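Please describe the entry underneath.
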Amino acid sequence: MLVTTVVLIVMLASSALPWQAARRPAAPKPFKTTLTVEQMTGKQAVVQTTMGSFVIDLRPDLAPNHVGYFMKMAGDGAYANTLFHRVVKNGIIQGGDPLTKDASKAAQFGTGDAAAGHLQREAAPHGFDFG
């Protein structure tokens, strides 16, 4: 009887009990670029699609960490063969989700990659112009 009791106590001590909160993994630290604004200035992203290409002027003077993260991810090939999963006429396009590389995950498109780096808000000091 003593052996059974000891085993039960050890089993209870090593497993989470219903009233014990599950521990969440620590949030990843926000991405911080190692590139200087000068190193990123004048860079462009050329996006090639099945419907043509377009160019995006990158603005490290307004959002250095976002530009640095985009350059890192593009350089690593993270956006290759991904889809634009959200398109708003005369508005925005959204893409780059790695899940879009797998058609069987269509219901999850736009949810992104939880393991990807996180960016803190970098607000521009001015509004945005249409066009």
About this structure: Confidence is low (pLDDT under 50) at residues 1-14. The CA atoms of residues 73 and 79 lie 7 Å apart.
